[in-house]
């Protein structure tokens, strides 16, 4: 019995650690989506930020500077995204796909320029769990929730702060109105373009932190497969969480349990090929998507460029 | 309408592409300069590597074939404004479908086996695309996410098949045994190795062009893509057309995988999809999904890709650099098109 408890504790503490990039990427999409900008560049931006975070952490030996570099990388992508979708009014999926590809290219190009092709990949120090006094001594919940890295606490705090901002402040109300009906917001004196730009750039920074976490937590190394579909799954998570910070925070755990099951399921010694276990997170996500779309609730202006001079609405 | 005006129109339409190419190549020069490489040598390599020798032309054609077909698989659903980002997985399923026939019915004569192999690859690709198509039809699930998720599942399916009972025990890499020689596509040229797949890949965009722009159903597809509600009002079943177009794209991507097996690899190979998925998105979006435009954009991207490999070999420039250039090319063309429209 104690053996089972120990296994479950390990499993769930891993799942909570894995949830960090999902939480951050989901909140990033929520923030931009609430202004009407649908982010699909996640996978590429996360990889570019993972690369820049790793490289800066490697060159300076400082993890925080690395994460800062990751956030800045994401901000640049957010800026390009808003220029093309808000100013040039281009299709958000087209621009998002172009930036996804660019992100993958930038990530691997930077790594090869700085590190080159080496047989043993260099490593950076990884994030360590910060045990919260007393709470971390609670059986099961202690190690699972209260002995995580600072990034987990940051991701939870950010989710709560985003919820407060969106639903309890006037700025948040204005921001959400831009995503529902930009024309009305405009007529009320809200600067639609500035709101979308700011939200998308900040969303890019959060996405950058989601990517930056990956090399720092798991292996301390960078590989091109580091993101491994988590950026795309984050889109499903955000739809699942109905573009709201708290459901996204909770939903992240569902997706991370599937993630851990796929990656570490072999330990369970199940009588199936490990390749089928690797499929689990993606199959689970597909099934969840069907459920989500049955009762889809999206910001009304999501994905649509706002044109002040257009007459149709 | 006189032909002079028409020529003006073409020139006007080409200008954004030229601006895009110049801007992207300038960015390439800046990157090379920042890396401390010889910029002129870089340009020379990038643009001439494909045509230096018959071997290089062969390499160019081998890149061009899957790229053209994959971008066609992306373009058909694009007509109804659907993004078939899953063409990568459909390609792999096509390859699985090809070796399934090649290794199961190896006793069949080639005259029967090869067509069956190609048909199987189309059906496998179509079936893989049918999952997101059905999810779109029944539950309106966004196809970008569902098709991408299907890609990831396909990667592991390839590993499962390539390490299963069909595995080539002597290969260090996950791959199946080869299909019988009689199932291979006939060669047009042995050196460079160019198969009949080249002809198929060139004929298909022409057929699709005819279908999209000259047939009634093609008209309905375009109408649904332009404004699905208006199309519905005029009696076009736009709800059914989008899933249909995605499945057609799946069959084309599957065939691309089948041709890659029967014309080049002769087996299922882990990683055989290379980066065709991502590149085909760029190729198709540059051509705005026009099947005839794909010829030029697929050729240009193939030239850049071959040039990138050459730059890596001779100048030590990371191959991923051309990836960035290609994405920039698309973004610059989008930008130039906006300013062309605004000027009017």
Quickly describe the structure.
By secondary structure, chain A is an all-alpha fold. Chain A is built from 12 helices and no strands.
Describe what this molecule looks like in 3D.
The complex is a heterodimer of chains A (313) and B (344). Chain A has 313 residues and is mostly helical. Chain A has a single domain (8-118, 154-295), classed as ABC transporter involved in vitamin B12 uptake, BtuC (Orthogonal Bundle), CATH 1.10.3470. In chain A, 70% of the residues lie in helices and 0% in strands. Chain A has helices at residues 2-33, 42-60, 63-87, 92-114, 141-145, 150-168, 170-180, 182-187, 192-219, 230-240, 245-264, 274-294. The radius of gyration of chain A is 20 Å and the shape is globular. The model of chain A has no long low-confidence stretch (mean pLDDT 92). With 344 residues, chain B is mainly alpha-helical. Chain B folds into two domains: 1-37 and 317-344; 56-313, ABC transporter involved in vitamin B12 uptake, BtuC (Orthogonal Bundle). Chain B is 74% helix and 1% strand. Chain B has 13 helices and two strands, in the order ααααααββααααααα. Chain B has a two-stranded antiparallel ribbon. In chain B, helix 1 (3-34) crosses helix 2 (39-48). Chain B is globular, with a radius of gyration of 21 Å. The mean pLDDT of chain B is 92. The chains are: A mainly alpha (313), B mainly alpha (344). The A-B interface holds A 40, 80, 84, 88-90, 93-95, 97-102, 104-109, 112-113, 229, 232-233, 235-236, 239, 273, 275-276, 278-279, 282-283, 285-286, 289-290, 293-294, 296 and B 35, 83, 85, 131, 135, 139-142, 144-146, 148-150, 152-153, 156-157, 159-160, 163, 278, 281-282, 285, 318, 320-324, 326-328, 330-331, 334-335, 338.
